Amino acid sequence: MCASATRSTRPGVNLSAQSSAVGDDIYVNLRGIGATETATLLDGHPIGPVGVAPGTFFNGAPTAFDYQDTPAFALGNVQAVYGNGALGLYGTDSIGGAIDLQTLQPTRQPEAEFSQGLGNYGKATTIVRASGTVANDKLGYVLLHGVQGTYGNFAPQTITQTGVLSPNFSPGNAGANTYLVSADYLLHTDLLKLRYDLSKATQLTLTGYSGVSWDDKSGNGDNDFQTYDQKLYNGRQTIAAGGSTLTSTDANGNPIVTFSCAPGKPGPNGNPTQPGIAVTLPGGSNSCVKPTQYASLASGPAGGGPSPWQAIRNQDYHARLTSRLGINDLVLDGYFDNYAVDYNRNIAGGLGGPSGNVFVGGFDTTFTRTNGLLLSDDIVAGNNDVGFGFFALHQNATGTTYNTNTFNLDTNPALKFEEANYFIRDAYTPTTAVNLFFNAWVKHTTVTNETKFDPRLSLVLRPTGRDVFRFTGGSSTSAPVPSLREGTSSLNSTPQNINPNCTSSTAADVGGVGNPKVASETGSGEEFAYGHSFFGDTNVQLSVYNENVYGKIFNINEPISVLGASAIPANLLTGYINRITSFCGNYTGYSPAQILPLLTVTTPVNAAVGKFRGIELSGRYRFDPHFYLDYSYDVQSATLNGIPDAILQNQVTAIPGAQIVGIPLHKAAVGLDVSSRRGFEARLDTYFVGDNNGYNRPQYFYSNATISQTFGHGTTLNLGIFNAFDSATDRYSRIGLGPFVAENKFGTDRNAFDQNSERFALPPTQIELTLSQRVF
Which of 169, 292, 299, 670 has its CA 20 to 30 A from that of 526? Predict the structure, then answer.
């Protein structure tokens, strides 16, 4: 799980879509700019969806790489590249930077190693690796297979989802919402790399990688919990509004009162004189209860139904031919990447259809297939190296969706993303104290049919042997993912994963519709960096940056009516109503005609200017050869300006000029490392994450620890402890316990309960003991 490599440990690195579930979705953004504005690379080339978007999914298709499925065991390094401009060998579009996942390289001497790890929460890890160089040092190789599994926060167990029963707490409804919950998670990683020296000047490298993850969503994401405090507040609001009723429908589909706890709304039980909350008790009888009774009944787990699962498959095939002819370094490079996501909630929807024996929860599969070809020539001439070349990228997103109305498997429209890019780069070294790096790309994309110029310039000064100054400026353009510009619409075919809003003027977003007018995002920025080396590896580094994003893409909410009459199939509407009313007691008894105006779909628009500024301080202090301290501290200001009222009305937590929700202003880390000459090493890393963080909880600390001992004959024993002091943990995400999030002028929420503010958490302490044996 590569998240451990990037989990808020580096300046400017932020995780979004967080929960305490080890197999839940993980997305990475740099400096708060956005997950889709942060490119994910494998050995330098883009993988997963390409383009920018307002979120990590749109119209049922992924728009960002999910770090749940990463080549953790196969990595030799993870590099974070910050800033605007076309980055790296491939000129990757970068508004916010890039995370480069770099796979292992062949070793000079033959090595073979077997590792076996066992830990709590049913965790087991097995890794087999072989590496070396043979055939008179001409053929280098890496072979690796790794597998890791755990049952996470939930060993398989049967749990009644009491948080979704309201207002029907009868045995029948409780039984229908009692099912097996598990946080099972499995990750497979395979790597084969061959590097062959065709001659002293020519080298061919072939790499094949496969990563497959699978997780049970009932314990990896479906971990919402309706707290007693939240339901008590909801109950009091119901009483203040005059009580509630239980309803049914007549032969014409009109709502009728079957039991009343609302004065003035008589039912078969008469016209009550005092307001109450109408419920069906666990014994099966109807009753009017007080808020405290209601909170006791309605609080608890609020999952999305039985047997949901997700699988992510990433296969990447990469060939690279390099050759030196005189002063020319020639490169021919090509790759093919397949990124597929399977999402299945079919059983969770229960049985339905004309015969009543077809599961109707829904499922879908998306395929994002990318291939790229690079041709380049770098001319090495004394103190001035000049390179030029061409890179073409083709991406095709396809998939299938189970139609829960026709019960057929529908083929999704193919979405193409193509770029043709020409570049020139120059590395000029007039003196040993001055370096100038220039990288310029001319890019044409078929998504918006536009041609853009993306430059990046860095000046590096070394006035002394211990000091380095760097000044960098650049600009970049990123086209939207194709699904944003498609005029087609898509409805959420899995209602069980909706988290309704119980207090807003709208209850739930149930789909999306494309906007052919949405345009590219553009970015520009400057960065100043300074580094000083004291003695040995003791050093300090300081970076100050200013990044701007223009035409930032937002989702705006539009009424479901924009899709036309009868846009929602009856079975889907029933699913939406059931999910909304189980979460929100104030909507109990609403007819389809009453629920429809509360449903919205999202559509993307370019609507703001993002300003991202910060200071990043990091370094190391070595006390002696066997003891040192690493440290980092960063301040990241992330704001949006120029947001129109049409968006502010629907996104009330978006405040122009204020810190973006989920991006902490302050973060820090301290690591202590001690070792001995006899193969012992211990390390403790402690992290601080400030308020307004991705877990939607107050500021918190947590620590990770490792202790290892290498014995003779290549044997290593390693003890790894994540969240060593069990800080900020909870296996559930608690609705109502999150902090109140400030709102703009259109917001009407008075407290965190009005917002249904959900507090997320870190996983509990995880311990794994790993034995590694070098065979040779």
Answer: 670
